[in-house]
Amino acid sequence: MNVAVFASHGGSDLQAIIDGCKNNKMNAQVVAVISNNSDSMALQRARNEKIPAYHLSAKKSGGEDSLAKEILDVLSKHGVDMIFLAGYMRMLHISVLEKYDHRIFNIHPALLPKFGGKGMYGMNVHKAVIEAGETETGVTIHRVNAEYDSGEIVAQTKVPVMEGDTPETLAARVLAREHEFLVEVLSDISEGKIAIG
Ligand code: GRF
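Above: the input record for the complex with 5-O-phosphono-beta-D-ribofuranosylamine. Below: its predicted structure, written as tokens.
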């Protein structure tokens, strides 16, 4: 399974996927990494691994339509079977959503449908979980459609909220779980246990 990973910032999830592929934990390889952020660690991590890394943004391409065309060109050039959004802070263009329908997944650091939607990203999510007095949170992997965080949920795992947690301590616990969970779920996708197409 040829995977393209889209990421905007740190790329620790991307690294977990790359490592999972290298350690044969899944029948897959990361064939391209795309970021809207030229400074993202994700691009650096891809370059370190000799994986084709692309900085593509609407600003650089001259608009959303031309950006989508560039993204589609990269995806077809690398024979991409599946797209994974690992901290990608942009909505995908409808032409990309349509062409890769059912083959695009996102990871969200909470138990959707709770704590999702526009504005629910990064520390905002963990802050909201703590403020709501939740005793557990988790990680959700879902298919991507044209609305934030609302596509079909394909896998979830729970993570406890501990007494005295701050958004930062909770974020660190959730992220550590993401790294393991991603490998489990991508392995299921690569074996056809979760369908693509
Ligand atoms: C993760 O918390 C993920 O759930 C969210 O973005 C974050 C990515 O972290 N979608 P990193 O950039 O991979 O370290």
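Notes for the reader.
Residues 7, 9-14, 86-87, 107-109, 175, 178 surround 5-O-phosphono-beta-D-ribofuranosylamine (CB under 6 Å).
The mean pLDDT is 97.
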